[in-house]
Design a protein that fits this description.
Radius of gyration: 19 Å
CATH architecture: 3-Layer(aba) Sandwich
Number of helices: 8
CATH class: Alpha Beta
Strand order of the largest sheet: 4-1-7-8-9-10-11-12
Shape: globular
Helix content: 25-40%
CATH topology: UDP-N-acetylmuramoyl-L-alanine:D-glutamate ligase
Largest sheet: 8 strands, mixed
Number of strands: 12
Amino acid sequence: MKKVLVIGDSCIDIFEYGKCNRICPEAPVPVFIPLEQKRNEGMAFNVHNNIKSLGVLCDIITNKKSPIKKRYVDKASNHMLLRVDRNDNVDELNWKKLQKIPFIEYDAIVISDYDKGFIDREQIRYIADAHPVTFMDSKKRLDEWCCNIKFIKINDKECQENREFLHGSYKHDLIVTKGKDGAVLNYATKFLNTSEHPVRDLTGAGDTFLAGLVANYIKTKDIEEAINFANKCAAWAVTQKGVAVVSYDRLKI
């Protein structure tokens, strides 16, 4: 059975759903009345959970102490009123632990890097050199340290910010996500979303795309098929409230 390792920083996502029926008399802000709470493992753990849900064995190496992202959301409209982040920086990955990883046991390594301090550039370079099939989604400024990453997944805004490196030194496969417009492979091949979906919440959609991309690729070895599948996963994710975990049953495949 195929097996994947996810390395990256994770958090706890908390969604506090409530109602807002009046404005505060002390200041021009809505009065929020909590009704229910939803708690999920987020960031790298969200990638891990989605890969597992798609039927792939998946391990994770992540920070022990998790940042907390708490969102206050109007339940009726799903409009986010406020996000509060706590413990935003995390302990870094120990080099000795990284060097003990049995990379040969895995079909792919996934780097889900939100740039909170868990993994640094030289560690990512080490991982890319240690395994031939690496996927990366990073919030860092890209440069020579990630030249050997086999697949970089990045959103359109981040692609423009890293345009000089991606057009110059990077010679492997680049997948640029474009929201409702799907994704593009190596600036040339477009993969469109095949149907319209009502967008409820964008939270975690990038993680779901990455998970779908990895889960499909290690089975098919076809990056174009994997991108099409990842599009379906992300399109489903945005129809859900909060952070949701995809599966073949939920995709009706």
